[in-house]
Every structure is written in C-alpha cells, then in structure tokens.
Design brief:
Strand 9 (211-216) and strand 10 form a beta hairpin. The protein contains 10 helices and 10 strands. It is globular, with a radius of gyration of 19 Å. The chain has a 6-stranded mixed beta sheet with strand order 6-7-8-3-9-10, sandwiched between helices. The chain is an alpha/beta fold and 281 residues long. The structure holds adenosine-5'-triphosphate (ATP) and magnesium ion.
Amino acid sequence: MNGPAAIVRVTGLRKSFGANEVLKGIDLSIMPGEVVCVIGPSGSGKSTLLRCVNLLEKPSAGRVELLGVDITDPDADIDKVRAHVGMLFQSFNLFPHKTVLGNLTLAQVKVLGRTMAEAEEVAMRNLSHVGLADRANAYPAQLSGGQQQRVAIARSLAMDPRLMLFDEPTSALDPELVGDVLAVMRDLADAGMTMMVVTHEMAFAREVGDRVIFMDDGVIVEQGTPAQVIGSPSTERARLFLHRVLHPIDIADSELGETEPIDPVLDRQEWDALHHEEPAD
Ligand SMILES: Nc1ncnc2c1ncn2[C@@H]1O[C@H](COP(=O)(O)OP(=O)(O)OP(=O)(O)O)[C@@H](O)[C@H]1O
Ligand SMILES: [Mg+2]
C-alpha cells in the first residue's frame, strides 16, 4: 500500500508525570489536508497529546513521527522539523513590545533566513488573510483578544507550516470574539491545511472536522466522522460528555444515566449567528 505519507504518526504513545500516567497508549495518524478535532473532558490528556506531537513534552514510551521524521529518535533534528509546525495555544503568545508586523517578521528572518523585505511581504499577505492588514503597526495590547489570536495565526502561517496544532484557541476569548477566530480556522482548513485541533466548539468540530477523536482518561475512546462521534456517539462515556457540553445548563449528575439524544441543531445555530458577524475592528 503506497498512499500519501502521514503528516503525523503516533504509535503506542504513553506519557507519565511521576506516577500519574496521563496517556495510556495512543495510536493516531493524520493524513495531509486532514482536520482532526480532539474532544474530551478536562484532564483527559488532550493538551499532553498535542504537546507530545510537537515534542514539547517528551513521551515516556512510544513513537512520534512528524513529517516522516521519527522525532522520538534521540538523533533527530527536532528544531528542523518543528519549524514546519505551527502551534497555537489558549493564550496569546505575541511579543508585547513588538508591533504586529514585528511579531510576524521576527521568526521568518531568524529561523527561515528571509530578508526583511520578503518577510514583510509575507507578513502583510497573511495579515490580509486574517483580516488585519490595517493593524500591522499596532501593538498587541491595542488589539482585542480575538484580533491577537488572529495575529498569532497569521504569524504561524507566515512560516509556511505543513501542520497546525491548536489547543483550545478560542476558550480564553469573550464569546463575541470567538466566531472571527473560528472563521479564520475554517478558511485555513478549506485551503487544505493539515490541522489538529483540541476544541470545545462542537459546531466547529462538526462543520470543519474531517475526523473527531474523543479522549477520556488517557485513551482514545472513539473516533470517526463528526456525524458519528458528535451526532451519534457509540460509547456511554462520549454520550455523557457531549450531553454535558451541548446542554451545559440542564444537566444534573443524578440524571446522567438517562440523557436525551443530542440535538445537533442547538449549537449549529450559535455557530451560524457567529458566522454572519463582520470582523470587528
Ligand atoms: N507538566 C505537568 N506536570 C504534571 N502533571 C501534568 C502536567 N501536564 C499535565 N499534567 C496532568 O496530566 C493530566 C492531563 O492533562 P492535560 O492538560 O493533557 O488535560 P486536558 O485534556 O488538556 O485538559 P483540559 O481540557 O482541562 O485542558 C492532568 O491530570 C494534568 O494534571
Ligand atoms: Mg488542555
């Protein structure tokens, strides 16, 4: 079988912090252009998995291949591989003392060796993509959280990544700013970017995800299309989690045994409402 090579291939991945084993044997491949959304309860190991993929956490056992390179091999040139991987976290990691443009050009010049003129051209192109070309000379503190997160995405994109990792990029944002960031991520997915996205945004996972992975307690409990995993989960654990996320108000622990089927329309309406908002400037 000679299909295209996987962008990410994780085999038998385990990670312990002291005596606490938080990843208990993860197998996962992500193919070029695929958008994989990872969902699951707090503490289930989602962030740890994402960080192991980028080797920000060192696995306790198992193997992680990134862009065809075994980065768990002690001889691997990790920095070289990592230069092709963009990572976005919950909080914005912009340099506060640099302008938006300065934030976008820095690594291009330092890591990729581009000239400043090239770097600025690439920066402006990517700022346009996220709707913020007119804020190139602003400082991060002068932008809203959502705008800062879009700048952070543009900064990653300026490095021509082959894979983007997102760890709940909208969860620190005010609700009215979430839609603009999700829209940028959706555009990125439409443009063919390979993405691994830890998210609580079920509407995003359903609409943009090619595959949804439900994690609990350090293992992948189920995975499949969004319609399968979010629409009709096959395990009780996934069903309870989704009910909790989609119906955060009407849940009581005593009722967990008898949840209703999930209403797929519910957060779809929220998503649509957000979609039709113009980017705030
Ligand atoms: N650096 C660390 N040192 C010790 N324990 C850690 C460390 N990072 C994570 N853990 C533990 O590993 C477990 C999984 O954490 P992780 O952050 O991966 O969960 P998560 O699924 O991302 O949760 P959340 O949805 O709250 O972000 C937790 O019990 C956490 O306390
Ligand atoms: Mg997390």
